[in-house]
Amino acid sequence: MGIGSDLMQGLGLSDPVIRLGVTGLSRAGKTVFITSLVANLMDRGRMHALRAAADGSIKSAWLQPQPDDTVPRFDYERHLAALTGPDPHWPEGTRHVSQLRLSLRVQPQGLFAGLKGMQTIHLDIVDYPGEWLLDLRLMERDFAEWSAETLDRMQGRPGTEAYEAALAAIDPEARFDEPTAQRLAEVYTAHLREAREAGFSDCTPGRFLLPGEMAGSPALTFAPLPAILSGSPLYREFRRRFDAYKSRVVKPFFRDHFARIDRQVVLVDVLGAIHQGPQAVEDMRRAMADILTAFRPGRAGWLSQLLGTRRVERILFAATKADHLNHVQHPRLTNILTAMLREARDRADFSGARTEAMSIAALRTTTEDVIRQGDEDLPAVRGTLMDGRQAAFYPGELPADPAVLLHPAREGAEHWLDADYAIMNFAPAAQTARQGDGPPHIRLDRAAEFLIGDRI
């Protein structure tokens, strides 16, 4: 939607539009969330907590061509077929910005419903990789600051030794040459991939992990360098490329996509981080705090100048994969997420944005079960594993007090002291939905009510 469309909407001369941004870090479930949300808004039998669906206000829903002709369309049909077809499987994750428009035909309810008449409301869903959003922190750092922070943060992460060996081979007096730059960038990118696989969240620059059409470009061919190399030709060129990355890659993304979002979902794989250990939990907490500064209206600096008076009105923080836990543990998962995001969430609340935290499963893959272990009955879940086997699973008990996890994470503990939290990789279950029902979920209707319920 361009400036002209924004103006028309502001004057009340076009149908209202809600722009919903969906992001999160790798494996948080962005693609599944969008696919299931759209499917459940089109077939609303499972959306009881969405009031406009429950009271019949939404008369129909259909997909339309997206308004931005230069942005790829979110491949809803292919993703839905992957999740609900005869051989259900997980679709590919988000690798670039994409968009989808779902139009809702709504008959307002209440005292003045007859005066308003039928209304069409467009929901524009914008999907973008959370890895790109991590680059926000780069905008207010220069190359020296970013390098120092990154080299310090690398300690203890996989792939660090290989990168340090590559640095040790650098001659500070040598002239700049492209093969050396490419080799350093490749080793550093390999470290980022290994760190992400090990459960670390804060891996910048984000485009190194998802380069798209920019793979191999000079703007993506740099790496952090120690201060001892600050007088070298290599350092000067990497500093120039770092600045180019910020101005030509990061800033246009925020200007063209992020600045026009009304409502935002931030998906977080809290269970995955807990399984990886205290360092992954603390790294996720720091990364999410950095990311969420982007949603603070009135924030000083380049972002507020870019956004102007535009504000994100509502932000949902959602801990995904709640179906991996029995429902009795869902409140504890929500409490852990709330505690992890406390500082950033308080900032958003203080600035006027409404926020909510909840545990969800956009696609439910399990049923609840009980496992007998000795003299104890353990609340478990049962589902189909990726290899086709059926399994009942108890991941361990999440603590009632989030500080039991967050305190050792902040203190730098390498392992959990008294507990081990397991995870399973469940496959999508075969669908047996009734006519008019979307895919099974946990609290997706509550999420939709918070995000768009007031507008429909």
From TrEMBL:
Organism for this UniProt entry: Paracoccus zhejiangensis
InterPro entries per UniProt: YcjX-like
Pfam assignment, any one: DUF463
Origin organism lineage: Bacteria, Pseudomonadati, Pseudomonadota, Alphaproteobacteria, Rhodobacterales
Protein name (Swiss-Prot/TrEMBL): YcjX family protein
